[in-house]
Amino acid sequence: MRGIDVPTVREIPPFTEMSDACFEEVLQMAYLQRFPPQVQLITEGDPADFLHIVIEGTVELFGTSNGRETTMAVLRPPSTFILAAVLKDAVYLMSARTIDRARVLMIPAENVRHAMEEDPAFARAMVMELASGFRSVVKTLKEQKLRTGVERLANYLIRAHDQTGSDGQVELTEDKRTLAAVLGMTPENLSRAFATLRAYGVEVHGSTINLTKMDDLIHLAQPTPLIDHRSI
Amino acid sequence: MRGIDVPTVREIPPFTEMSDACFEEVLQMAYLQRFPPQVQLITEGDPADFLHIVIEGTVELFGTSNGRETTMAVLRPPSTFILAAVLKDAVYLMSARTIDRARVLMIPAENVRHAMEEDPAFARAMVMELASGFRSVVKTLKEQKLRTGVERLANYLIRAHDQTGSDGQVELTEDKRTLAAVLGMTPENLSRAFATLRAYGVEVHGSTINLTKMDDLIHLAQPTPLIDHRSI
DNA sequence: CGAGCCATTGACAGAGGTCAAGGCGTGTGG
DNA sequence: CCACACGCCTTGACCTCTGTCAATGGCTCG
Question: CATH fold of B148-228, please?
Fold first, then answer.
């Protein structure tokens, strides 16, 4: 293994319950690499040679077709990505690039598949990871098809609010350009969506957002655990 | 097992490589049920008690929120659905209803998870199924976000054409109302999309479609294996 | 033959993208 | 210290895509 802080990696979900022998073997051929912002890590259509795990920083998954581009997900640690492609020994369906400076652990696909054969606990963890990923994409698709842009923004703010202080204030963790991509709209449209939400007590001061009429906002957003509850 | 034609079930992908003992045990508690058209099989938000496998007929997965509804997928045999919810012992994220008359095999979630622990071949088949499902949803999301309605229809016709005779003729396997749902648009919009495609050699005669200018149609549709290739 | 469903078409409205212009803050260089 | 340039965000005008509502025509089935 190259450049790896072993104890840190050992605490990341897919590895916590792994046998020592398999852990050793998997890390044997793995890389831990640092990347500057805006570096493309993988390209859709390429064979899936490595399983990727975000250890630090932020990574964006995106898709392209017909000259258009769309953000599929934004990942923060600890997140595994392109697991399905690795298991099926297929090509990547999405591309990935860093947003922040980031550290990414890369494990050869071969070793991942082998470790799953050998170590039932690791296999179970990977299956759970895959199932969670599946459900995430389903929620994203539901959100995309069932909500307007304004509603997606409102629900995003409510989620961010619940996950942090819940004190009526939200600090955006990404610039608005990126937030627009996450929410599946253009930056211009995001500005308009914020303007629309002013009537629902959403006050924008740079990257700080105050929510002064939570009841009104929730009434507009209609959050549901079947879309908004991350990790269910 | 109740009402099950054992040899038939044995030939369905997840069961082909299963050990006899596990196969017996799984089927022990399973139901094979017949349903008339338009019957709701599962409801989003309910706990995932059974893994479902479509043996015959057509099943639609759909999602609801805020009084709106959207089709997530249309399944034909042999298709497993809601596998992720079963593995995570979570609630359904989608609802399901029959379109046709259908036969569905239902296996208690408990037994599925137990069989995966006991039978590595079955576990592997289930993981492959889950990974394939994941990639399907990703493709659906990409198609939804990157293509207009007209483009989605054009690509659907090209896929249908390639999968059947490839003789310039396509026979629609569902009524247009359902096709519109599959493509994520209203029936009115589907009609207009067909009208738009007339200029690209698409001639509609009831449920028979003639494609007389494949080159033009392909040029418009810009198909890509990373969205359109089913089972990659 | 009539009821009812489906598909089609037209008119309209809303959501969202594109293009262009301008404001504001930050940082750099004179 | 100020001037300028650059990037990001915002705003306005406009257009496309899509959904909604309503009316019509065709088909099937009782």
Answer: Arc Repressor Mutant, subunit A (1.10.10)
A121 touches chain B (CB under 8 A): no
Contacts of A225 in chain B (CB under 8 A): 45
Per residue in A63-112, pLDDT (tens digit) is 999 899 999 999 999 999 999 999 999 999 999 999 989 999 999 999 99
| B87 Cβ under 8 Å from any chain A Cβ | yes
Averaged pLDDT for residues A17-27: 91
Half-sphere exposure for A209 (CA within 13 Å, toward CB): 27
- A219, A155 contact by CB (below 8 A): no
CA of B148 to C1' of D16 (A): 11
**For residue A173, what are its two tokens?**
């963790």
Which of A117, A130, A137 is opposite residue B131, by nearest beta carbon? A130
| Structural element, H or E, at residue B32 | strand B31-35
> Is B45 part of the contact surface with chain A (CB cutoff 8 Å)?
yes
Residues in chain B: 232
CB of A68 within 8 Å of any CB in chain B?
A: yes
Nucleotides of D under 7 A from a protein CB: 8-13, 17-22
Third-level CATH fold of A6-145: Jelly Rolls (2.60.120)
- Our CA dihedral for B11, B17, B19, B23, rounded to 10 degrees, sits at -40
Task: Judge whether residue A11 contacts strand D, using its CB and a 7 Å cut-off.
Answer: no
What are the start and end residues of each CATH 1.10.10.10 domain in chain B?
A: 148-228
Instruction: Tell me what the mean pLDDT of segment B25-31 comes to.
Output: 90
Distance CA A119, CA A131 (A): 18
| DSSP single-letter state for residue B164 | T
What are the pLDDT digits (tens) for B116-162? 999 999 999 999 999 999 999 999 999 999 999 999 999 999 999 99
Per-residue model confidence (pLDDT) at position B117: 93
Residue keyed to tokens 């709106």: B68
